[in-house]
């Protein structure tokens, strides 16, 4: 599979335009025209990771943290980053990074924590935009109208608020002439055919656009499926950084911390707040999200789960009567490899592995 084809599909699920302006996401190093047969996923790429990729014949490294973040003025082997870039190019290894777009996107890091803690009534903590919606119109012979409509609904199309399987149909005449080499479901080669067809229209959010189109084509009897796609002005679900919601049942602040230690396999946590106090509403911002504590407080949350809490921020948190569980930057984001590994394994016919390198720069003695 060509790298550009892989990127096109992955960016429909995790669009680059979701990333913050200061971020650097997408293809960082590499040739989009080359074939990709083996991928390695990891939190970030340092020298050990690059050497691992070379030894394991990797074509593409996918990282969460941007491989190049600060502005580069020179690319030489005298500089650590420049040295790694030279290594990557000589070994024909590309690097693709997905950072805040992955944090913000549906099924990204923050949603992983939502599922892990089984939060209910989940909302966006810091709204940045709204999801794009598309109108899909497909032309179907009347004999197969139900097959196509059911396939569209089962793949997630046609959701409007609390309603599902929403669609609109218009009947008309479709005309086509099969050329030499065609294998028409209806009609004969080089003869103009007229068919009683139905135009089926429905609404599709961007995050499932590929899935819906694929399901529609599989259910359609025609060799070549005629369909139109229109980007709509009306918007879908809110998109943004962080999530917040309610626990299934109230528990002590300490118990919540112990659950996180177990599920994330963490030996130590830093916490701010009374351990015996009861919590029910939780906010999550993976990575460095301590600056979101006020937003979490204003949203009625009892506790914020994040990393990189500073001393003075902790003092302010105590003063406002808020609680924080600081899992550490690394431990809130290390699951990136697991999420991406599963996604690529399920969606692509490409060999994928997780890096064996432990990238946590901190240790506790």
UniProtKB/TrEMBL annotation:
GO molecular function, one term: metal ion binding
Domain of life, source organism: Bacteria
Residues binding a divalent metal cation 1, per UniProt: 65, 103, 329, 333
Gene3D superfamilies referenced in this protein's UniProt entry, alphabetically: 3.30.70.120, NIF3 (NGG1p interacting factor 3)-like (3.40.1390.30)
A GO-annotated cellular component: cytoplasm
Keyword line: Metal-binding
Name of the protein in question: GTP cyclohydrolase 1 type 2 homolog
């Amino acid at each position: 599979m060509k790298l550009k084809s892989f990127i096109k599909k992955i960016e429909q699920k995790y669009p680059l335009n979701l990333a913050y302006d200061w971020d650097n996401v997408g293809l960082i190093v590499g040739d989009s025209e080359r074939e990709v047969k083996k991928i390695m996923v990891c939190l970030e790429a340092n020298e050990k990771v690059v050497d691992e990729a070379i030894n394991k014949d990797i074509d593409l490294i996918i990282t969460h943290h941007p491989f190049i973040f600060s502005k580069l003025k020179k690319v030489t082997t005298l500089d650590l980053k420049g040295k790694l870039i030279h290594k990557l190019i000589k070994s024909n290894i590309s690097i693709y990074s997905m950072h805040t777009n992955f944090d913000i996107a549906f099924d990204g890091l923050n949603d992983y924590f939502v599922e892990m803690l089984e939060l209910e009534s989940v909302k966006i903590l810091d709204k940045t935009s709204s999801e794009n919606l598309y109108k899909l119109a497909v032309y179907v012979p009347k004999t197969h109208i139900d097959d196509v409509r059911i396939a569209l609904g089962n793949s997630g199309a046609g959701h409007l608020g609390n309603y599902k399987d929403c669609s609109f149909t218009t009947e008309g005449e479709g005309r086509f002439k099969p050329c030499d080499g065609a294998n028409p479901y209806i009609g004969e080669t080089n003869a103009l055919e007229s068919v009683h067809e139905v135009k089926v229209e429905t609404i599709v959010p961007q995050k499932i656009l590929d899935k819906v189109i694929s399901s529609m084509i599989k259910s359609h009897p025609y060799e070549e499926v005629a369909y139109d796609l229109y980007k709509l002005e009306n918007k879908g679900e809110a998109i943004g950084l962080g999530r917040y919601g309610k626990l299934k049942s109230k528990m002590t602040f300490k118990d919540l911390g112990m659950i996180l230690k177990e599920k994330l396999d963490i030996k130590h946590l830093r916490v701010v707040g009374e351990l015996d106090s009861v919590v029910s509403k939780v906010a999550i911002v993976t990575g460095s999200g301590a600056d979101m504590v006020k937003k979490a407080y204003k949203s009625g949350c009892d506790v914020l789960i994040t990393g990189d809490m500073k001393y003075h921020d902790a003092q302010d948190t105590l003063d406002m009567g808020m609680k924080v569980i600081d899992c550490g930057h690394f431990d809130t984001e290390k699951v990136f490899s697991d999420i991406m590994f599963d996604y690529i394994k399920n969606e692509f016919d490409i060999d994928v592995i997780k890096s064996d390198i432990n990238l946590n720069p901190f240790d506790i003695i």
